Write the structure tokens for this entry.
Amino acid sequence: MREVDLIILGAGPAGMAAAANAANLGLSVLVLDEQPRPGGQIWREVERAAPIRGDILGKDYTEGARFARGLDHPRITHVPGASVWQVDATGEVAFSKDGKTEVAHGRRILLANGALERPMPLPGWTLPGVMTAGAAQTLLKASGIVAERAVLVGSGPLIYLVAAQMVRAGVPPLALVETQTRRDLWRGLPHLPRAILGMGYLLKGVGLLGELRRAGVPRFIGASGIVIEGSDHAAAVRYVSGGASHRIACETVLLHHGVVPNTQASRSLNLPHVWNAAQRCFQPVVDTWGRSAAPGVFIVGDGAGIAGARAATLTGSLAALAIARDLGTLSEADRDLAARHLRLRLVLERAARPFLDRAYPPCAEALAPADDTIICRCEEVTAGAIRRNAALGCLGPNQTKAFGRAGMGPCQGRYCGLTVTEILAAFHSQTQAETGAYRIRPPLKPVTLGELAAMEEQTEGMG
Amino acid sequence: MKPAFRDLSPEGPRVTVRFDDRDLALREGANLAAELLAAGVMPFRRTPVSGAPRGPFCMTGACFDCLIELGGVTRQACLMEVVEGLDIAMPKGRRDA
Amino acid sequence: MESDYAIIGGGVVGLSVAWGLLRRGLTVTVIDGDDAGLRASRGNFGLVWVQSKGMKQPRYAQWSQTSAALWRGFADELTDLTGTDMGLRQDGGYDLHFSEDTLAETVAKYEVLKGQLGGDYPYEVLGHNALRKEEPNIGPKVVGAIWHKQDGHANPLRLLQALADGVRRKGGRVLTGLKVLSVAKADTFTVTCEDGTTLRASKVVLSAGLGAAVLGPTLGFKAPVRPQRGQVMITEKLPKLINRPSLIARQVDEGGIQIGATNEEAGLDDGVTRKGLAMLAQEAILAYPALARAQLVRSWGALRVLSPDGLPIYQESPTLPGAYLVTCHSGITLAAVHALQLPDWLEGRPDAPDLEVFSETRFS
């Protein structure tokens, strides 16, 4: 079995920063990532795309290139195309690469799995042609492909960024249908002074809005009653905004109303999670170094709490310091000294979040979908079915899953879990924390039976 | 079907990929799901629950809507790259043929 | 508010009994735990199974046979009321063998049992070629199978949901999210829960699975139940590959292939292990080689509720008459008799089934 000091799951901003720092501090590092090249989602394909499309994608993107280069270190082994399907708190990680499962052991494990788009169940959201805004951005970054007749729907700064990138690419979106209201903006204002610390973000956002205005991209605010029309493919978006009904014929609908931590791996370790009310999602409990309730497991980046790419590099670096201290290659004094300026920068990076979270909240009607809206894409379970099972005594997602199959598909609740929690919480007048989340068990990603059968005895009494 | 996507950099060596009964010329080494989208392939699959058409949704390997079948194994197209001679099909789901 | 019966535990066993009591016009309150609880009702294999049961106790074989025979009527009645289809298929099932020796041994045991049951044990021994005609995808290493005609399978989760629905429609009260702390008896029983909820009933049924190990002794039972873990796997939805179920694999109505199970003394650990998954995968592929390319989508560890001899326990409390312990590890197979015959025993009716062999007196 491959033995290393540190196994890192995810080669995004957090994982790359942690790997480079850990290696520089003398630790042997194994980085496992599903994608063929490093970058995660925010910096997807940055090594290939920055030279070609950097002007469209912007500096926040291209700066990821130096982190990718940081993986080129004698003490770092980066395994791309590795699908991690089991992690345990003793430090063993099973991953599938090229059809074969390997098990590695790390004295410490760092989960840097990033974020997922918050599920946004609206009528028609399962039609071909409907994707997340993040997906559109990935298509642009990794493949130079832009949707021609697209409408962006939802709320949050990513909508503006994607729209601006599309404008720069010469394929502007047909419209932005934004679900946040003026009142949401007012609610964010008390947090604006603090957000001044993150002035860079705010100025960027203002800049993006200016870009969109100059390009003549129509924006509709306070949208509601959103329906995606089409039979075999998305064909139009209907909505109400400014007191009037609208309908835009289109071919692609890009949804976004925030990102949430990807908690599949942390849940599979049965680690405690808390409900973050401001960001309306679950996140794992970690200390200020990123250490989870399991002493050998650290969780960093957006997977521990949404704060963006730069914050991810900082939390990744902080964890690397703590792990080096754990494993004896760094003194406590040096660790704390190095951490100081990282923590200061982290405060700045996190400063704008409270304002953004309130000014651009999740789309209310996607948190409380109509009965006939599909909320589990894999098993095609509707919101109404969830409510019927709630009426049959299902208090949480696990009994609900047993009664109605929501969460049983291959995505294992990545795109329905939060919705089920919200529906049940509303139905039973409970908090989301009381309602809970799906129990997650391996495989975190599908693996063939043939591959399982061929697993060699990696340890004595393998388990 | 007319592709809903514009390819900003269509240049680069292309290889033949077979998808069901169609031969497509896709960019070598590019993301498979992206190339299929650019080539106008839609839907990628029909769900085994109701037969509803589906295409890529998240492009990050999390949603499983981009499933295709390669060598009898269902795989996520958004995690694959285009190579010469790729012979893929819509996943069978529960259908026998 | 007082009920005729308070049923502690709202899994398949408790709900089946509740359904049966409600059918007889009795009033019932079911008390069930929370979302995170260990629930054998959620993790089982869904078999409605006769063969291999009661090899050392023919009465158990008979009890299983009776239940299997009643299952269709039980399911139809539940479907009529709730609209939910249980997906019952009773086409027979296999005991697959990879060696002629084990096959012959098992056949010999079945012949003995058949004699004890007066000949009512309809099975057929299939050699590899005959099995191949029934199961085109069976692997070359399977030398043969015992095909028992009374075996079958259903969708255990739809059964659970349908029972939860049916019990409510018949006027049963089902309280979920509760934990029973104590049961006291004056002239009626008072059940007290952790959150302060109390209810009164003339009789109490303890059908709380592994929870009976804690609560049982306070009610005068031995309740010698222990957990035994079975790791189970399920694949992506696939075209029809397997016609009839076996203990190794079955294709569920939704299309996935369910593979099981280990038999581990793992305490209350309901997780899965790589060793367990590897072993299950190996056996499944030996039985059906096409499964090598199937993607595993989910796995879980289910905790069987096992008595020392693996047989059910039906016992009235010696110290608190009117309190009954009902526990088994075949809650799906026995759902029909739990609904249609056990209530007669609970009510002390003269035509009640003879369940003496299942009493706790056998453990001493």
Q: What stands out?
A: Chain C has a mean pLDDT of 97. Residues 93-149 of chain C form one domain. The first helix of chain C runs from residue 12 to 23.
